[in-house]
Amino acid sequence: MLPKKLHALYARNTPDYALGLGFAAILVLMLFLTAVGLVQLEASQKRLEGIVGDHLAKVSLATRMYTSARERTISLQQLTILSDPFERDEQWIRFLSKAGEFVQAREALLALPLTAEEEVLLKRQGELTGIAVPIQERVVNLVSAGSIVEAQRLLVDEAIPAQDRVLEQLSALYQLQERKTQQIVDQATRDNREARLQVTLLAAVTVGLALFVAVTVVRYSRRADSALRREKERAQVTLHSLSDAVIRADANGRIEYMNPVAARLTGWTNVQAHGKYPKDIFNIVRDSVCDTQFDAVEKILTGEESISGPVDFVISVQETTQYCIELIATCIHDDLGNVAGTVLVFRDVTEIRALSRELVYHATHDPLTGLYNRREFERHLQEALLDARASGVEYALCYLDLDMFKVVNDTCGHVAGDELLKQISLMFRQRLRKEDILARIGGDEFAILLRRCTLERAEAISELIHGAMKDFRFVWEEKTVDVGVSIGVMRVAADSGDLKDVIRIADVACRVAKEGGRNRTHLFRPNDLTVTRREREIDWVQRIGRAVNENQFVLYGQWIRPLGRSGQRLSHCEVLLHLRDESGGVVTPASFLPAAERYQLMPVVDRWVVHATLATLRELPAAALRSLGCFNINLSGQSLCDPDFLAYVLSELRTSGVSPEQICFEVTETEAVSNLSNAITLIERVKEVGCRFALDDFGSGMSSFSYLKNMPVDYLKIDGSFVRNIADDKIDLAMVSSINQVAHIMGIETIAEYVESDAVRVALEALGVDYGQGFALARPMPLEVLLRELCALPVRLSI
Question: Both 10 and 125 in a single domain?
Answer without folding.
Answer: yes
